[in-house]
Amino acid sequence: MILINHIRQIVCISDSYQSFKIGTDMSNLHIIEDGAIIIQGERIYELGSSNDILSHYSPDNFTEIYDASDMCLIPGLVDAHTHVVFSGDRVHEFAMKLEGKSYMEIQAAGGGITFTTSHVRESSEEELYNLLIPRLDRMLAFGTTLAEAKSGYGLELDSEVKMLKVIKKANEEHTIDLVATYLPGHAVNPGKTAQEMVDDIVNHQIPVIKQLKDNGEINPEMIDVFCEKNVYEIEETKAILEAGKRIGLEANFHGEEIEYLESGVLAASVKARAMSHLENLSEQAIPLMAEAGVIGVLLPTTQYLLHLKTPPARSMIANGVPVAIGTDFNPNMWCLSMPLAMHMACVNYRLSMAEALVASTLNAAASMGRSQEYGSIEPRKYADLVFIKAERWEHLIYQMADPPIAAVWKKGKIVID
Ligand code: NIG
Ligand code: FE
Questions:
Q1: Which of 6, 88, 239, 358 is the most buried (most CB within 10 A)?
Q2: Does residue 226 have its Cβ closer than 6 Å to ligand 1?
Q3: Locate the Amidohydrolase-related domain: which residues (predicted)?
């Protein structure tokens, strides 16, 4: 067993995730001052005040003892939304955006997702994997220990499967744990209609995805669609999400980003696990989402880059919609840092720092079905830990682009020091 003692603050999030209401308890952080934590193997064994722990154990009980009297401790950060697998970056489009071209104008001119998709189709699994690994390394250095990862740049069966295989391999081989999302409806291929895409996805792709999942070749757990005007609108999105649900995938989709379509009502009616973006979410959808338990994933980096409306984050929290945060790392928005996304959510959406931390740990873990084992510092959960060298944990968010992350532990092992 390993003991880390005299930690200035252990920010546990909750003392029991089972009784923590991820929608309404977001301001109630459970913090232990001058704390100690015992790790056994990959998991947290016990924690409490240093006095308490030290009075129950002798130094002989431990193989290693660390003093962390200049550190605060938070759970490993969880990134609720990434498109981290791709080739074909879009640095050239950044200048177009600065000149005032909209996201949809760039996409309509053959750029955007269509550009990246043509590169991904040409890339081998190995090339995609080799591009992915350094990105995951950066995420880990910024404190992310669990992330959602989407396909969505194949947009035909073989290339979508290729992306899902890359995610599965990276999950097995890289320190960061990844939860895979199959995103067949990310854009409409040139020359096709949305309905033709839906027919292909529902009748051709999804049965094969199920077969490959059953064989253990890929492991998607969620299904995603870019629900947007002139991309996949409500009925088309619904058809794809429901077909995914029939093979056991949870719905976790993009909605209400650029134009208002009432995707929030759809999310509630299909009992989606989560919906991301939410810039145009209507007030009437909020209680329905709360009732259905849909988690709202905020992506403050993309909203900033594309000058989108401000999502009604305060109203979501006030009405009991659990809010999570993601970086939305993708070739449009290059950000691998959860602390930066958290800072933006605080300043631009008026989340408190406590809310931003819950949104980036326990709630984000819940948005990918992982809150039983990740997202808070509690006995039996994985020892995924981020050490912050500061007087108080809030320095993580306050120090914006330069968070004072001193060490990261993953499943009981030091991985960044
Ligand atoms: O979440 N809006 C749709 N999907 C991504 C962007 C993907 C891309 O532009 O490559 C997002 O922002
Ligand atoms: Fe996205």
A1: 358
A2: yes
A3: 73-415
Q: Was domain 78-367 assigned CATH 3.20.20.140? A: yes
Nearest partner of 229 among 277, 271, 269, judged by Cα: 277
ipTM: 0.98
User: Which residues on neighbouring strands pair with residue 382, listed in sequence order?
Assistant: 43
- Write the pLDDT tens digit of every residue in 64-106: 999 999 999 999 999 999 999 999 999 999 999 999 999 999 9
Give the distance (Å) from ligand 1 centre to CA of residue 338. 17
List Cβ neighbours of 187 (8 Å cut-off, separation of 6 or more).
107, 112, 113, 114, 117, 155, 226, 231
406 CA → ligand 2 middle, Å = 29
* CATH classification for the domain delimited by 2-75+376-416, as one of 2.60.40.1640, 3.40.50.2300, 3.40.50.1100, 2.30.40.10: 2.30.40.10
Q: What is the pTM (predicted TM-score) of this model?
A: 0.98
279 alpha carbon, distance to own chain's centre: 17
Residue 162's H or E segment, with its range, is: helix 157-173
User: Strand pairing of 2-13 and 30-40?
Assistant: antiparallel
**Residue 114 Cα to ligand 2 middle (Å):** 14
The continuous run of DSSP H or E covering 78 comes out as strand 77-79
Residue 292 to residue 321: CA distance in whole angstroms: 9
Any ligand 1 atom below 6 A from CB of 331: yes
Q: How far apart (Å, rounded) are the C-alpha atoms in residues 348 and 356? A: 12
Is the shortest distance between the CB of 257 and ligand 1 below 6 Å?
yes
Strands 43-49, 30-40: pairing kind: antiparallel
Domain ranges of the chain: 2-75+376-416, 78-367
Decide: 254 in ligand 1 pocket, CB within 6 A.
yes
75 in contact with ligand 1, CB cutoff 6 A: no
- Ligand 1 test: best mutation among 85, 114, 230, 254, most atoms within 8 Å of CB? 254
Q: Which two tokens stand for residue 142?
A: 């910024």
Beta strand 144-150 pairing with 177-185: parallel
Q: How far is CA 172 from the centre of its chain?
A: 18
Sign of the CA dihedral running 297, 298, 301, 302? positive
